[in-house]
Amino acid sequence: MINAIATRFRQLMARRKNPIGYFYRQDCKNKTRRSFALYTSIGLIGGILALLLIASPGLSQKPEPQQSPKLQQPLLVGTRVIPPFVLSNKGELSGFSIDLWRSIANQIGVESKFIEYSSVPELLSAIKDSKVNLGIAAISITSEREQNFDFSLPIFAGGLQIMVRNVDSKNSAFPNILQLFFSTGLLQVIGIALVLIVLAAHIIWLSERNHKEGMISQSYFPGIFKACWWAAATLATQADEMPKGVLGRLIAVVWMFIGVLFVAYFTASATTSLTVQQLQSDIRSINDLPGKVVATSAGSTAATYLQEHHISILEVPKIEEAYNALQTKKADAVVFDAPVLLFYAANEGKGKVQIVGSILREESYGIIMPNNSPYRKPINQALLNLKENDTYQSLYDKWFSPKES
Questions:
Q1: Cα torsion for 279, 284, 288, 293, to the nearest 10°?
Q2: How far apart are CA 31 and CA 356, in angstroms?
């Protein structure tokens, strides 16, 4: 009995365990299948990605920083002669801008060839037409030019200034006196004096002609001549004889006061005329330029500035021609870049010209290139390096610092 119960119990337990084992085995099989499917999918996706990376190598590489473009060899550099930035001696170029570019080219590691142009408009046209890669001289950075070209960082800070002839007092005194004698103001004064002298002479002649001891004879001639001489001498406060009659003496006293006033008026008029002449030939600021002829280089920022201020301009192809116009008195002044004028005044124009007034308008010069030029970034980097290592300052001192005598 006991054995039968035990056997029945084991059968019941076996029945309970079998489903659990069955379901457990089925779950393991499902997990194995899912894992196999997952790994298979990952493998397929990885294989596809590997094929894509092999087909496009750039996608599998880390993006590299953009490299500077390879510069053309040699670079064609447009320039123009404009001392002290660019000078030409038997075909050899020198000057501040030339030395600076050579230092920049050395920093970049390129060779270059200079091509000369006679004016700024020609140089700008050459850059626009791709005849040269860039230009350097004394080229002002303006908003108008910035629309059509690229500029480097400023290479020089300058501005516009006025240059006039030196006034030589020894040479100019005599012409000024002649101008005074033939001036309209002096002729008017002389005319008034003649009228007063004739009027006073007749009054004196009438009052003195019947006096026994009178200084003037009764006859009209030569009595009136004597009276005119007296009236003129008295007007100039140089009378050597006085009327004898009471009426004549009263007239003489009044006439002497008139003479004092006339001398004062004449002196003031003469002084004013000479002062006006001196001021007319003495230009000190932009306010003195209206009514004068001012020479400058055609197409320059100076020409634009003078046009904006409605000043009469004599435009010449080269600045050297403006200097000649000033010396030959075809122009009253020259307006141009201050460093250029200062260099001329200290060298060829020494003693002949002088720089007057303050800077009219500040300007910066730069290296000019076509729009979107690939040379702009390496040039700017080289320029910054030259300023940091004092090469720029050395070049500046070489060309613009006062020379020891």
A1: 100
A2: 98
How does DSSP assign 194-254, residue by residue? Answer: HHHHHHHHHHHHHHHTT-TT-SS-SSHHHHHHHHHHHHHHHHTT------SSHHHHHHHHH
Strand order in the sheet with 75-79: 112-116, 75-79, 134-135, 368-370, 149-151
CA 256 to chain centroid, in Å, comes to 60
Handedness of CA 344, 349, 355, 361 (dihedral sign): negative
Exposure string for 305-329, b = 16+ CB within 10 A, e = fewer: bbeeeebebbbbeebebbbebbeee
Q: What is the dihedral sign for C-alpha 322, 328, 331, 332?
A: positive
> How far, in Å, are 62, 194, 221, 259 from residue 228 at the CA level?
112, 9, 11, 14
In tens, the pLDDT along 76-92 reads 999 999 999 999 998 89
Q: How far apart are CA 297 and CA 314, in angstroms?
A: 8
User: Judging by DSSP bridges, how do beta strands 156-165 and 362-365 pair with one another?
Assistant: antiparallel
**301 with 321: CB under 8 angstroms?**
no
Is residue 78 exposed (0-12), middle (13-18) or buried (19+ Cβ within 10 Å)? buried
pLDDT tens digits, one per residue of 334-393: 999 999 999 999 889 998 999 998 999 899 999 999 999 999 999 999 999 999 999 999
**Do 138 and 340 contact (CB within 8 A), yes or no?**
yes
